[in-house]
């Protein structure tokens, strides 16, 4: 196995470890959302940001290694792994492909969990917004309809959540 191929396998392995850690963080984030644990949620968000930065660095490292392999194999125009793998020997090719498949599989799981957590957060925010709108309508009700169907001011009436009739 060439030096660049070994380094690429190592980079893909590192990327796999980061993706698996990110999936764990997203699972914990989901538990925090469902349990309404805002302090822990904030910690998970910070961890998620750090992991995304590390994943970005690993992605750049992989891209540089693919370019180095392309130059080594006299394919300077190759911008992705697919044309490079066509010229790589079989044992190396199989190893790199299996790591690539694993990273792509984890990436797909990551996208699904990110979408799920985003939907959970959006639903929670919609509930809070709806509740705030409800109370705003109760406490800020300044207009109402009169007997003639015309919009009239409510006068000096104080808004109340509970109305007690005597």
From TrEMBL:
Pfam families assigned: FlgN
GO annotation terms (biological process): bacterial-type flagellum assembly
Keywords on record: Bacterial flagellum biogenesis, Coiled coil
Ranges in coiled-coil conformation: 9-58
Domain of life: Bacteria
InterPro entries reported in the protein's UniProt record: FlgN-like, FlgN-like_sf
Record family assignment: Belongs to the FlgN family.
Chain's role: Required for the efficient initiation of filament assembly.
Annotated protein name in UniProt: Flagellar biosynthesis protein FlgN
Protein's organism: Citrifermentans bremense
């Amino acid at each position: 196995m060439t030096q660049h191929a070994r380094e690429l396998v190592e980079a893909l392995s590192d990327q796999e470890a980061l993706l698996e850690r990110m999936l764990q963080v997203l699972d914990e984030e989901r538990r925090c959302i469902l349990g309404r644990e805002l302090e822990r949620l904030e910690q998970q968000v910070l961890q998620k940001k750090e992991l995304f930065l590390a994943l970005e660095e690993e992605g750049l490292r992989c891209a540089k290694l693919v370019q180095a392999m392309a130059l080594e194999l006299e394919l300077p125009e190759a911008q992705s792994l697919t044309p490079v793998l066509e010229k790589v020997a079989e044992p190396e090719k199989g190893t790199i492909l299996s790591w690539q498949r694993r990273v792509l599989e984890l990436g797909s799981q990551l996208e699904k969990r990110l979408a799920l957590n985003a939907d959970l957060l959006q639903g929670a925010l919609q509930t809070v917004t709806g509740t705030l709108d409800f109370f705003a309508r109760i406490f800020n009700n300044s207009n109402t309809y009169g007997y003639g169907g015309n919009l009239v001011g409510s006068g000096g009436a104080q808004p109340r959540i509970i109305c007690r009739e005597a």
